Amino acid sequence: MRLFAASLATETNTFSPIPTSRANFEASAYFPAGQHPDRATHTTAPLYVARQRAKRDGFELIEGSCFWAEPSGTCAKADYEEMRDEILGQLKAALPVDGVLLGLHGAMVAHGYDDCEGDILEHVRAIVGPSVPIGVELDPHCHLTEKRVRLADAIILYKEYPHTDFVERAQELVDIIVATVRGEIRPVMSLYDCRMIELVPTTREPGRSFVDRMSAREGKDGVLSISLAHGFQQGDVPEIGTRVLVVTNNDKAKGDALAAELGEEFRALKGQFAPPVVPLDEAFDRALGSAANGPSVIADSTDNAGGGAASDNTNVIRRLRERGIGDAAVGPIWDPVAVEFCLTAGVGATIPLRFGGKAAATSGDPIDGEVTVLGAVRNGTQSFGSAKVPIGNAVGIRIDGIDVALLSHRTQALGLEIFTSVGIDPTQKRIVSVKSTNHFHAAYGPIASAVIYTDGGGPSHLDVRKYPYRKINRPLWPHDPLPPGQLVV
To answer: Taking the CB of residue 415, how many other CB atoms lie within 10 A of it?
Structure first.
């Protein structure tokens, strides 16, 4: 048995002012063919798992290139095609193959390509022909288009948000493709469109219970896999929205019925999944009024780099200073220039510094003041499940009693290391404000006395009605009254 595996992934915020090029992929994670490290990342898990299985089971794995870029704006057309064609050329050179494994994201958009993953699959299918099984792992924040479901043999999405289960889902995908190659199963897919856009954290109800009920239906009566595509609300593409995907062992009727059943169950819970968001001052008041042990974690999802925002909005810090609130930590703030100034000054130095407020009008005004450099790290990383995510060069600074994590690599708050590696102990703060929507829960939930969501005035709103969509297929809730759900594939 010969399998080919590769990865090309990013999450495109089509409203972001930050353009995406190949250089962004190479700065985040680029592993040329055969050079993937011996650890999984959240979009390269199929290759990593297949490598372990190949050693154990004695089949041959041909490893192609792997690309990942931090979420930002639309990708340059030529750069996307160059990366795509690098992988396609490797696949052609590997022929004949018995199966293909792809680690994609599902919400990548390039100029001229609203469905990059569908385009990749179209080219892969043309190369390998109709009989070679293609397996794909996607992020649940994907646009699960009809095209890619019709072109692939099996698609599996992570179930958890935060996405801590990418390795487990890759294991399931590799199992399915290997069994398909061996003729033991014949996967078929059913896709149901809920005709709505929802944010579905699995750290709260009803998302937690829905995913658990979904998972309980797997492995029985020929049901191989069930996935919930949340959709990615910052992507202006026609097939945006929440969809249910069922993979059965050659039982399309059963898959259709189950996808529709779960889709209708999900639709009945509309509007209950996303966490409540309170104004910034109310978030501070709640945190200050709490007598519980541990910090109150205030999440500003509007400036989440994981959703394509700049992560340099200064409104939270500005309001803390205006109200005279200290004993707080805020991060991450993306500002490579300020980081270099602080690294040059050195740990322990007190210097005048301007930081933040650079990328766009939604970044707010820069912060100016005397800061003390608390700590520093070069080429730092933060933890995200079993993965290590780069934060670049980073420093911790203190201004008016507020500790701030400044990063040179734009990323959201995932692990505690954005603070601890630069001399800030978040467990000892009264308030910890993080720029993230839900991935922070894996590391910050265990230390938090409370988690409070606020609107810091950044560009990535949780309220999808604030986005100026032009391409989405309507009617679609919450822009319109909930239309009927429909079976797509």
So the answer is: 22
- The band of 359, judged by pLDDT with boundaries at 50, 70 and 90, is very high
pLDDT at position 293: 86
Tell me the mean pLDDT in the region 119-142.
98
Q: Which residues pair with 227 in a beta bridge?
A: 245
CATH, domain range 2-267:
3.40.50.2300
Summarised one tens digit per residue, pLDDT across range 27-41 is 999 999 999 999 999
| Amino acid (one-letter) located at 75 | C
Q: Which residue ranges make up each domain of the chain? A: 2-267, 277-461
Write the pLDDT tens digit of every residue in 249-261. 999 999 999 999 9
The predicted-structure confidence for 77-94, as pLDDT tens digits, reads as follows: 999 999 999 999 999 999
pLDDT at 179 over 90: yes
Mean pLDDT of all residues in 442-465 = 94
CA gap 413, 419 in Å, rounded: 9
What per-residue confidence (pLDDT) applies to 55? Answer: 95
